[in-house]
Amino acid sequence: MYVDAPALDWITLTTFSGGDNAHYRNILQDASKADQTRELRIPRYLGIIADGVYLAMGEQNKKRHYMLQLRGAAAERYKGGVRGLSDSRCTRVDCQITIEIVDGWSARDFHDKIKRRAWPGTKRNHRRKVNLIENEGFDTVYIGSKSSEKRLCIYVKEGEDGKRYLRFEVRYKKDKADVTFGKMLQGEITPNDIVGYELSLLPKYNHHTWLKIAQVVEDYKEGVAVGRTVVDKSTTYLWFQKSVVPSLRRLINDHDYGPSVAVELESILRGWMLND
Q: Is pLDDT at 124 greater than 50 in this prediction?
């Protein structure tokens, strides 16, 4: 993960064009040089993922529909490779800034304070939808609904260095994503501009966490901030693949427990889809 400087964190492009899909395949082929490819199915699409690049095919209006997702570091790495694809549409673009977590940070405290405040710049200063998901310190605050064109996400990540990091992430979807990403490709705006703008719209909440993030944004704008790369801690995922997945496969096929396990998995996936 990229730390102490704003960066792209997710790009989703879609197209019906076989020509644009050929460019998508070239990006996946390059990514596969650094990582083993594997099949991945998501709702309505089946594809291949490697090193943060996911290329999938589905069907819309009885036509083949292609989707390219550039996740994490792959978004910054390959953003230039999709310039000029006139038949592609950007349906999601995320920008983020990540800092080492500040002592005293509390997602619960932030959630409670933000939830009660009106948002300047919105029609009649309406309050936005604010949700909190607590997970033993790795908590997440969502601001905005999943269906809206803009959603903010504030959550905790852990690095291989054992430290915890706080990420402020801006997620644009639909037309807002397409227009924003087009401006990025033209050099009119940057991830730093987007992060700085969305920070400025937060209700006044002068916790030192936000003061630190705002300072990094300003320093980056002035050219004095230098980002760095921290390896995400992957032990939880490796444990999941090694221990949990085989157990789930056995249980889902068990005559007695299979139906109950299926219901639990469906509930978990429904919650993930609601908050993605």
A: no
